[in-house]
Design a protein that fits this description.
Structural class: alpha+beta
Helix content: 25-40%
Strand order of the largest sheet: 1-4
Number of strands: 4
CATH class: Alpha Beta
Length: about 70
């Protein structure tokens, strides 16, 4: 699973920063958006995705993982 942030949709609400139990996100004051700074620590708990006001965060399976799963 991979966590993606669509910066065009991010409204800078910082809910993901607040709800992430592992501190994977940080607010970038230069662009007024949130950045994923520690993706390796992500538990894929979806707290960020479920609380994102701008619907900017998605946790998805990598494309190649879906492709290989279909071959089996």
């Amino acid at each position: 699973m991979v966590t993606h942030i669509n910066l065009k949709r991010c409204i800078g609400c910082q809910f993901c920063v607040q709800v992430c139990p592992r501190g994977c996100f940080e607010y970038d004051f230069e662009i007024n958006k949130v950045k994923l700074v520690n993706p390796i620590l992500c538990l894929k708990c979806r707290a960020c995705e479920l609380n994102c006001e701008g619907d900017a965060i998605r946790i998805e399976k990598p494309i190649f993982q879906n492709f290989f799963a279909q071959l089996i």
